[in-house]
Amino acid sequence: MAPVISVSGLSKTYPSGFTSLNNINLTIERGEIFALLGPNGAGKTTLISIICGIANASTGKVAVGGHDINNDYRAARSLIGLVPQELHTDSFESVWATVSFSRGLFGKPKNPALIEKILKDLSLWDKKDAKIITLSGGMKRRVMIAKALSHEPQVLFLDEPTAGVDVELRKGMWDVVRELKAAGVTIILTTHYIEEAEEMADRVGVINKGEIVLVEDKARLMQKLGRKRLSLHLQHKIEAIPEALAPYHLTLSDDGWRLAYDYDTRGERTGITSLLGDLRTAGIRFVDLETKQSSLEDIFVSLVSQ
Amino acid sequence: MNLRAVGAIYKFEMARTWRTILQSIVSPVVSTSLYFVVFGAAIGSRISEVQGVSYGTFIVPGLVMLSVLTQSIANASFGIYFPKFIGTIYEILSAPISHVEIVLGYVGAAATKSIILGLIILATAGLFVPLHIQHPVWMLSFLVLTAVTFSLFGFIIGIWADGFEKLQMIPMLVVTPLTFLGGSFYSVNMLPPTWHSIALLNPVVYLISGFRWSFYEIADVRVEISVAMTLAFLVICMTVIWWIFKTGYRLKR
Fold first, then answer.
1. Which of A238, A290, A284, A235 lies closest to A261, judged by CA?
2. Helix B3-19 and helix B55-86, axial crossing angle in degrees, nearest 10
3. Separation between Cα atoms, residue A41 and residue A36, nearest integer Å
4. Alpha-carbon distance B228 to B243, whole Å?
């Protein structure tokens, strides 16, 4: 199946000479949740802005649903819903009016039943006549999502959708995103909460300094790059790691009560069995042990720090 | 054409007018009424007729034009500047709307407000002085043409401005003086020859002259020249807006 978004050779250089994006090549598959991760200023929002028509690219091509974003902008944009990072709202409009306005902008006929459903799904129905200025930050964020969904987009960009949102509301939004995915909507998510990407994404892209560092299936990425750590809680405190255990590159905690061993899950031999044998030979006993998989956050930090 | 989008922007902008009715309609009407009280009744009663028309009646087209010019610019510039200021412009830029449709929505609403205001001021003037419009169709045509042209000009200012000070600068420092010096309260033919020649460099002279002609068949310049000058300014504004959208000037990053 053809990708729903195809970005090729995309670059953005500002008149000041600053290059925000450098030769970006990326495809987003239909119906997936794609998490775009990157530190502040990496180029995430610039990339989204260009795809959505808010910023101009210096070079390169972007197609949405097979439609070029410049030559066939109407068809391309009509497929896209955008929830920007900042809470840009018309403070004195009612929730109902602003969501209906968004639908009108996309050339769709009035559909009160749909708007009602969207507002109910986002727990905004009882606020439909409230002026936006009277809403809390979390509610405003949901209004932004309702506006983006009002024209029934096939592709939804969520730029930091849960920034500044409390835990309960964040999980509620995740449910909304999952429902959208189930309905066939492609979702591109940028987030600082790695937990969010780990929880929801099918694929992960990492952007750093305007370049795509990695695009990978999330599960495969975690399997490929993920390392595990074996932590041993010792029976007796030790001052130093015995010379015989040097090949294992163990780490001793500052208090001398814990030893950590990092190993690669992809390897045929993890070295755990021999380590445990060598520990016994060295007279080191332990009272407890645990293993922990590297999180996406660990992987992300490791990638962007390279 | 995405007419629903044009309608959405138009209705949104008109809704803002009704929300701010005091600022949008009542305030200009009160100001204009004061002009009639001061220049029409108080001072005007001591001034003899101008080109065969009583002074109070003579200034009516100029006062209407003064309000239409300033309100067209204010409405259109604020209409596009405010979404830029609060960031909601993202929604306009990312919607499947052409540049023409965006302009139609914003400029259409700004011009509509100005035309409504102009007609209200005209009706208000009728309470103070006797009015007789010789060419009502031409009068309406001038009103619409001026409202549209200066709404386009306001739209340009709204995009150019990167702060509220700049938003006010052109209307306050350029347009209002040009309107006052453009024959709102007098005929430029009353000026000494040198000042008369200088006054003819003021584009507002042509607007007011043509508009006044449609009322009383008296004009400072030939009506064809008035129409041509207004159309020329319209074309200039449309060209600038075309360039703005082509380059994304102060709209797109």
1. A290
2. 110
3. 13
4. 23
Tell me the C-alpha distance between A155 and A187, whole Å: 6
**From the list A73, A84, A92, which residue is nearest B90 (CB)?**
A84
Tell me how far apart the alpha carbons of residues A23 and A9 are, in angstroms, rounded to a whole number: 4
- Contacts of residue A73 in chain B, CB cutoff 8 Å? 96
Q: Annotate A146-164 with DSSP letters as a single string.
A: HHHHTT--SEEEEESTTTT
pLDDT at residue A224 in the model: 66
Per-residue pLDDT, A227: 73
Nearest CA in chain A to B252: A55
Give the global pTM.
0.79
Asked if B91's CB is within 8 angstroms of A88's CB, the reply is yes
Nearest to B86 by CA among A149, A297, A171, A144: A144
Chain A contact present for B102, CB below 8 A: no
Residue pLDDT, tens place only, A273-298: 889 999 999 899 999 999 887 666 67
- pLDDT for B190-223, tens place per residue? 888 888 888 888 888 988 899 999 998 888 888 8
What pLDDT shows up at residue A153?
Answer: 93
Find the closest chain A residue to B250 by CA distance: A55
Distance (Å) from the C-alpha of residue A301 to the closest C-alpha of chain B? 29
Q: Is the Cβ of B80 closer than 8 Å to some Cβ of chain A?
A: no
- State which H helix or E strand residue A67 sits in: strand A67-68
The pLDDT value recorded for residue A113 is 93
Q: What is the ipTM of this complex?
A: 0.81
Q: How far is B97 from chain A (nearest CA, A)?
A: 7
Closest among A68, A64, A245, A78 to A148, alpha carbons compared: A78
CA distance B95 to A95: 19
Contact list in A for residue B8 (CB cut-off 8 A) is 101, 104-105
Which residue numbers in chain A have pLDDT < 70?
164, 224-226, 266-267, 294-297, 304-306
How far off is chain A from B159, nearest CA to CA, in Å?
A: 15
Inter-chain Cβ pairs, chain A and chain B, closer than 8 A? 72
Contact B253, A55 (CB under 8 A): yes
> CB–CB of B5 and A107 under 8 A?
yes
